[in-house]
């Protein structure tokens, strides 16, 4: 799948939002990629996961023991990636603010993990999830995502394979352009404010 084809999937299901958004990192943006809308169709979610899998070099893919994704955004694409690779897919949650495994999920000591995200902006959530996997006894060998909003700038400390890399501007709270500051802000994600 080309990046233009992926973008047109987002456009066709109303997943490219315009407005004023507070992102997970606390930064603000006039654009938001609502991946849940793209992933609400199972066939499309499966196709996207298989396209991401194709981006991961075979030697890394063959090492993966288990897929781990950070809830909420990573859940559906992580599950589909597990199906694409023929591996189990489990997820991290942060009801108390820190990612950990719940629901009886556990990693075998030294398990090689593919981390799967929906969107990476600053990489903060990914780094927190990678640290959580280490605390749980596993090792993240690579990460993949539907979208890299940093256009390749982000450093996760592991090889990173996004399906689409875009440069989408975001701003610190005290550096908002006046036209953005004039629009009421919404916070679509679930990280506690
Ligand atoms: O690279 P970052 O700057 O960390 O931003 C990307 C993260 O933000 C979103 O999650 P969010 O925390 O909004 O919660 P959600 O997944 O529960 O929607 C998205 O799903 C990524 O996890
Ligand atoms: O950085 C984020 O929180 C973020 C940006 C985006 O475009 N989409 C999303 O789900 N999260
Ligand atoms: Mg998330």
From TrEMBL:
Obligatory cofactor(s): Mg(2+)
List of residues binding orotate: 121, 149
GO molecular function, one term: magnesium ion binding
Reactions this protein catalyses: orotidine 5'-phosphate + diphosphate = orotate + 5-phospho-alpha-D-ribose 1-diphosphate
Domain Phosphoribosyltransferase: 46-154
Pfam families, A to Z: Pribosyltran
Residues annotated as binding 5-phospho-alpha-D-ribose 1-diphosphate: 94, 117-125
EC number: 2.4.2.10
GO biological process: 'de novo' UMP biosynthetic process; pyrimidine nucleobase biosynthetic process
InterPro entries: OPRT, Orotate_PRibTrfase_bac, PRTase-like, PRTase_dom
Catalytic EC class: transferase
Source superkingdom: Bacteria
Protein's pathway: Pyrimidine metabolism; UMP biosynthesis via de novo pathway; UMP from orotate: step 1/2
Keywords (A to Z) from UniProt: Glycosyltransferase, Magnesium, Pyrimidine biosynthesis, Transferase
Subunit structure: Homodimer.
Reported function: Catalyzes the transfer of a ribosyl phosphate group from 5-phosphoribose 1-diphosphate to orotate, leading to the formation of orotidine monophosphate (OMP).
Similarity comment: family membership: Belongs to the purine/pyrimidine phosphoribosyltransferase family. PyrE subfamily.
Name of the molecule in the record: Orotate phosphoribosyltransferase
Gene assigned in the entry: pyrE
